[in-house]
C-alpha cells in the first residue's frame, strides 16, 4: 500500500500534466476546484488517471466529499488498502 506522501507525489505529477503551472505546490490542504481552478472535467481526468494508476474504481458517491488533495489522498488510501 502506498504512503500518503507517495500518493501526494503521484497526484502532484498528474496535476502538473493537467494544469501546467510552473510554481504549482501541491499540499494536502489545497482545494482542487478553488485553489487550482479545476473544472469538473479536469477533476474527472485526474480521477481517471488515478483509477488507471491504481487499478481501482472510484465510486461516484464519494466525489461530493472530496474537496482537497488531502481528502483525495485519504480516499485513495481506503480504496487501495488490502
From TrEMBL:
Transmembrane helix listed as a keyword: no
Entries under InterPro entries matching the protein: ACP-like_sf, PP-bd_ACP, Ppantetheine_attach_site
A Pfam family it matches: PP-binding
Keywords annotated in UniProt: Phosphopantetheine, Phosphoprotein
Annotated PROSITE patterns: CARRIER, PHOSPHOPANTETHEINE
Carrier domain location: 2-80
Database matches in Gene3D superfamilies: ACP-like (1.10.1200.10)
Entry annotated with the keyword Transmembrane: no
Protein name: Acyl carrier protein
Amino acid at each position: 500500500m502506498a504512503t500518503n506522501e507517495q500518493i501526494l507525489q503521484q497526484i502532484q505529477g498528474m496535476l502538473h500534466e493537467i494544469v501546467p503551472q510552473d510554481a504549482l505546490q501541491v499540499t494536502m490542504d489545497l482545494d482542487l476546484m478553488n485553489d487550482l481552478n479545476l473544472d469538473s472535467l479536469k477533476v474527472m481526468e485526474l480521477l481517471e488517471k488515478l483509477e488507471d494508476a491504481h487499478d481501482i474504481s472510484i465510486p461516484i458517491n464519494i466525489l461530493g466529499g472530496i474537496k482537497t488533495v488531502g481528502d483525495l489522498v485519504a480516499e485513495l488510501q481506503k480504496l487501495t488498502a488490502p
